[in-house]
Write the structure tokens for this entry.
Amino acid sequence: MDCSLIAEELVAYCFGTCTDPTRLAFENHLLECGDCLRAYLALKRELEIGPAGGERPSPALRERLRADVAARFGRPRVRWFERRIPLYQGLAAASIAAALALVLPSAIDDLRERSNDRSGAVIDTSRSIPESSTIY
Amino acid sequence: MDTDEELYRRTRAGEMDAFDALYARYEVPLFGFLLAQLKNRQDAEDLFHQAFMNALTSREPELGVGGFRPWIYRIARNLALNRMRSQRRADHAIAALPEIDVAKSPHDELERERRTHALALAVARLPPSLSDVYQLRASGLSYKDIAAVLEIPLGTLKSRMHELVTHLRKELTSWTAR
């Protein structure tokens, strides 16, 4: 295939309408001829840039479309205190909160006493022992 | 990576990140397709918005026939055809071509501009049936997708493609002349 035939087949090759033998001959010629290769690449580039040269819509359009889609399909935001939770989850949370309220104060006191003992704090024995703490 | 169909379903389920991904895939090719048809940026933006909303709010999504891609192009094309009915497409397209300033361009750039102009003029002179085929092919759609958008058999599309190539071959003599 020579350059004049390549010129004839350039558009057909770009649009994929060549027969297989023509396509093979075309590609073999491109491998050997820089001028034809350049012509092919130039046309290919024009076609790939696209009919409108790669333009995109304005950012304002994107925001407007996004807002409309969100209004139509978006999941509504629910604030944490407005969330509905199942009854069993609520009861379980309440039970855990009640247990912590009962156990935590004495646990904290125990920890304080242990840390005081370890640090060698002086125990004040001048104070009277409350009756409730007296062991008989 | 999610398919277009999965992104479409997730958008309808309220996942806005899916919408963002779907928009990013189509903003250049679909907008470019509309702009090439209408030659007016504002019209192209309006119809781009409308095509997306029509696709998303459709009660019976036609995703089974070729998938989301040809379907949204079909919607966009029909919107563009309706908009252009009162306009004379060919005159409008030719009138919209930019002029080349011969005095200002260096030789290589001038050569490139002439070729670009020759292609644009050749495309503007295409009859509507072939112009659609060209615009869709240039937007990156496969033969199968183009046939689905235009709702024609693949054999008919191939005939039109041959006709398109014959037209462009004649018009692009400046490109290919030795």
Q: What stands out?
A: The mean pLDDT of chain A is 80. The longest helix of chain A spans residues 87-118. Chain A has five helices and no strands. The radius of gyration of chain A is 42 Å.
